[in-house]
């Protein structure tokens, strides 16, 4: 039969379990921090991409004319994303 663990062995086992729980929580927080950082970068990228597309449309007369025609047909894009087109 196996001997009963000593008080010190039980304490060491409990500390190892706590250390594993702390490592798991640290990994979760690290992933959350990476997601927040990525979100800001993606918003900046989307903004720059939208500006670049607007410049491309403005530089090409055919695209600019098409954009005006589409605005006349479907209405201009709303100023805010929560508004519906008129």
Helix-strand blueprint:
Blueprint: H1 7-59, H2 61-74
Helix pairs in contact: 1-2
How would you describe this structure to a colleague?
There is one protein chain. With 86 residues, this protein is an all-alpha fold. It has one domain (7-74). It has helices at residues 7-59, 61-74. Helix 1 crosses helix 2. The N and C termini lie far apart (81 Å).
Which short descriptors sum up this protein?
78% helix; 0% strand; 2 helices; mainly alpha; rod-shaped; 86 residues
Our estimate of the beta-strand percent is under 5%
What are the secondary-structure elements, in order, as H or E? HH
Please compute the radius of gyration using only Cα atoms: 29 Å
* Helical segment count: 2
Give the N-terminus to C-terminus distance in angstroms: 81 Å
Find the count of extended strands (DSSP E, 2+ residues). Answer: 0
Proportion of residues in helical segments: over 70%
Which parts are unreliable, with pLDDT below 50 for 5 consecutive residues or more? none
Provide a brief overview of the structure.
The protein is mainly alpha-helical. It has helices spanning 7-59, 61-74.
């Amino acid at each position: 039969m196996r001997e009963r663990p000593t008080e010190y062995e039980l304490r060491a086992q409990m500390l190892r379990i706590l250390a594993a729980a702390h490592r798991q929580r640290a990994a979760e927080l690290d992933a959350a921090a990476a997601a927040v950082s990525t979100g800001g970068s993606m918003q900046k990228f989307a903004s720059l991409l939208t500006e670049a597309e607007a410049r491309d449309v403005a530089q090409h007369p055919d695209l600019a004319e098409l954009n005006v025609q589409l605005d006349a047909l479907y209405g201009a894009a709303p100023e805010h994303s929560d508004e519906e087109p008129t």
